[in-house]
Write a structure and sequence with these properties.
10 helices, two-stranded antiparallel sheet, 262 residues, alpha/beta
Length: 262
């Protein structure tokens, strides 16, 4: 069985650093894809209310026959559900669709128009009553996170942002470290485009790996949490097979320099 590294979040929970993202996976295909991934050793699925496939994620988990506590499930609050009562009601709808008692991580999908402090208070309640294990945000900037923390005292456990070697968001990384927030990188392969980059191909050749594997490995060695999306079983296997090799400092720097090139 593949060994996936884990990261301890600022609330003490431990998240698998690698998983499967299901953005754009059609609802009717989701259960089979999640089942296939779990059979391969994936233990973390990133979905959202807005993806319309939470029910398939829950079904895939049950079909795989794994204990609930063995699989990390993240979902995200849809935009119309901002505010205290709407957020609590929307999470209960997610639990109903997933057919589970709790989600491991609930994120505010993107900042709302009203500063999100009321929504964040709802997240605090949901975490203390166990319907959610960890809470976080997505696509937030520093000022937006500061406002949540100033308003409630609760620091998000993660911020899920678009991050890849072309756009590493260094200032945001430093801010996350200072606050003790883990960085989740969505679009880790720049929606697949980085696999054609000549640096990724060169480093891959050095290691006898694929370009996708070395880019994903770059994320892991930086401490980012990633969940590349693929509906193709060969790529699913390729993407998870990244635990047993190490990029040198020189490889890491070369991949990091991809941002300067067109
Ligand atoms: P990604 O960088 O993971 O790229 C996915 C695409 O890369 C796939 O469609 C496939 O075409 C290609 N690909 C995957 N594996 C490959 C391989 N081994 N070789 C060659 N090509 C490969 O981008 P993504 O799907 O946008 O992001 C991953 C996940 O992040 C999503 O599924 C979703 O869960 C999450 N996400 C979150 C937000 C947000 O606003 N929070 C936004 C977008 C995505």
């Amino acid at each position: 069985m593949v060994s996936i590294p884990r990261i301890t979040l600022n609330d003490g929970t431990s998240i698998p650093q690698f998983g499967l993202g299901v953005y754009h996976v059609p609802a009717e295909d989701t259960a089979a894809l999640v089942r296939t991934a779990l059979d391969m050793g994936y233990r973390h699925v990133d979905t959202a209310q807005g993806y319309g496939n939470e029910a398939g994620v829950g079904q895939g988990l049950r079909d795989a026959g794994l204990p609930r506590e063995d699989v990390w499930i993240t979902t995200k609050l849809d935009d119309p559900a901002h505010g205290y009562d709407a957020a609590v009601a929307a999470l209960d709808e997610s639990l109903r669709r997933l057919e589970t008692d709790y989600v491991d991580l609930l994120l505010i999908h993107r900042p709302g128009p009203d500063g999100d402090v009321d929504t964040w208070r709802a997240f605090e309640t949901l975490r203390s009553d166990g319907r959610v294990r960890s809470v976080g945000v997505s696509n937030f900037d520093r000022g937006q996170i500061d406002r949540l923390v100033d308003g409630t005292g609760l620091v998000p456990s993660v911020n899920q942002i678009r991050l890849n070697p072309r756009t590493p968001h260094r200032a945001m990384q430093r801010y996350h470290r200072r606050r003790g927030i883990a960085t989740e990188a969505w679009g880790p392969l720049r929606e697949g485009r980085l696999v054609d980059h000549r640096t990724a191909r060169k480093v891959a050749e050095l290691h006898g790996r694929t370009p996708a594997q070395v880019v994903l490995r770059w994320h892991l060695q930086h401490g980012f949490i990633v969940f590349p999306k693929s509906a193709n079983p060969r790529r699913l296997r390729e993407n998870i097979d990244i635990a047993d090799f190490e990029l040198s400092r020189r490889d890491m720097a070369a991949i990091g320099r991809m941002r300067r090139w067109r």
